[in-house]
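Expect chain and fold; see below:
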Amino acid sequence: MATEDINNKEKEITQEDTQNTSSAKETTEEKVEGKKEEKGRKKSKLKKDKNEAKIQELGEKLADITDKHLRLQAEFDNFRKRTMKEKADLIKSAGESVLISILPVIDDFERALQSLSEVPDDDAGKKGTQLIYNKFNEFLKQNNIKEIDAINQDFDVDHHEAITKIPAPEEKLKGKVVDVIQKGYTLNDKVIRFAKVVIGE
């Protein structure tokens, strides 16, 4: 009986040792698994950090590209508006030099009509000259060329060019234009030839 007790106690001790060993193994395995999980978490956290950094970098690049695109678009819009304005100005003042060259011809026609003032109205030469002069005047109106009013007007440096001063025939004509030597013209409200005038003083 004493041997049985000893055997039983040995068995119990062996079982306890086995249980302790297996529980120690389980604890070691749990620690290993815990470490693996921790490493996995660290790796996933590192991946997340890298992904977030990439996302931030791409976001900055996108913002930079968007800004460049908007600036380029605005620059192109300004260029388009500027060229449209230049085209409009060019069309508005198209052939300005040609129109300016025609003005002396108009002056000559006016002088010719003045010299023909003593000729009878039914004269063919006078009628032809008057007809051509009228057509020239119509042509100027169609091209927005207007004569600058000068006679008896206040002297205006923006429209008149003073040739000389003479004593004013009347008190009310002092500082005003008393005679026009050469007519002035504007093209679309821009002076293309100043009126050459004589001022009363």
Remarks:
- The mean pLDDT is 82.
- Helices lie at 2-92, 96-115, 124-142.
